[in-house]
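FORM 7B: Structural annotation worksheet

SECTION A. Query
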Amino acid sequence: MAPLFGVGCAHGSGDNDVETAQHVDFAAPVQATTLAGARCQGGQCRCRRPGDNSETAPPASNQKRFEIRMSVDAGEIFLTSPTLGRLSHGGKEEECFYLDLPAGSRHEILIESRETKKGEGVAPSVRIAEYGPKGPWWYDVLTVGCGASNHPCDRASAKDWEDAWLSQRKRGRLDPCGSTVVSALKWDTSGGQHMQDGGALRDFRVQFVLLVKDFATQLAPRDPRCVPQ
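SECTION B. Predicted structure
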């Protein structure tokens, strides 16, 4: 692998900021992933459909359920965490994973996508949502996306994603009614083609910390009465 170098802009050290990551190094070993809920059987999960919000096998009272949706164009994508385990996917069709995480827990996460054929680049998409049993509702936590099928990820589209995150979040949240905070968000790449060849990146990596707060969600997603805590 080529040496890593930062390509984004640092914006400080607060929870709202996006910075470049110079390296990835998890101190703890990655454990096996345990899928949760009735949507998952035999190591695979059925994706939630519009209007299908309820979890028929809800998480325990001290746990919170998360949905991770992954897809990738012209490449492969991995989500790795010492506490969540390792998830992988290849292909345009979206794949879903459902995990239960302890309330009050902290999780270091790396999302890495890379091209599988030299010069084709990669266009990753990852969406993370938190389950709110009172509704039932699902709260947007984080969306990672760079490029599309007809325009793979390059520096410009990576910056567009960064700017969208900065403009939409409030104190580390896409939805102020959710109970999960994204902190220390960073991205990097080992580079790509020359701009005259399209400038497609060979890989795109995003690091962040997922903070699962103790309090229970109470109001519908994006309710104007919600105040970030």
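SECTION C. Observations
Residues 1-16 have pLDDT under 50 and may be disordered. The longest helix spans residues 155-168.

SECTION D. Sign-off
Analyst initials: ____
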